[in-house]
Amino acid sequence: MTIKDIDKNKKIAEFLNSAPRFKVVILSNDSFDVALPHVNVGKVVATYLKGNNLSEIAINSVKDYLSNAISEATISDTDYGKYVCLTNLGILFEKQLDFTPTEFLANISKNTALFLHWQGDIANKKLYLLNEGSRYFIDLENINHITI
Q1: Which of 105, 138, 145, 106 minimizes the C-alpha distance to 16?
Q2: Contact 97, 62 (CB under 8 A)
Q3: Helix axis angle, 56-73 relative to 41-51, nearest 10°?
Q4: Angle at CA 72, nearest 5°, toward 95 and 76?
Q5: Backbone angles phi and psi of 99, in degrees to 5
Q6: In this predicted structure, which of 8-17, 61-70, 105-114 has the lowest mean pLDDT?
Q7: What is the DSSP code (8-state) at residue 91?
């Protein structure tokens, strides 16, 4: 895997090698390369739900479906080890789907380096869905992370 900048690659490698409990790398628009293999979470979830006619069964099983899609997209890399990159995470905040985004992402990052392409505001160890102050955010207070 490569990020657009050699210095950023070095920072990421140093962070991942420091053996944090959680491994989350936040990629800004400047650092994210669309050629990087990634899971478009919104598209995966919406396609699954639409394909199952938004049934209650599909809504109840969407977490498992997404977890499987993420597992299948996980890559082993000589520099970063096991990692996955996720984009378009807004659907995780849909109340009906009953995700707890912070918990869901923390669980992934325990065993896999998690790269998140984040387009919202980042402030006070929070990833805001839209703008700082939004009621929709991912709290990184207790999650080791680096922003690139």
Answers
A1: 145
A2: yes
A3: 140
A4: 120
A5: -85, 150
A6: 8-17
A7: G
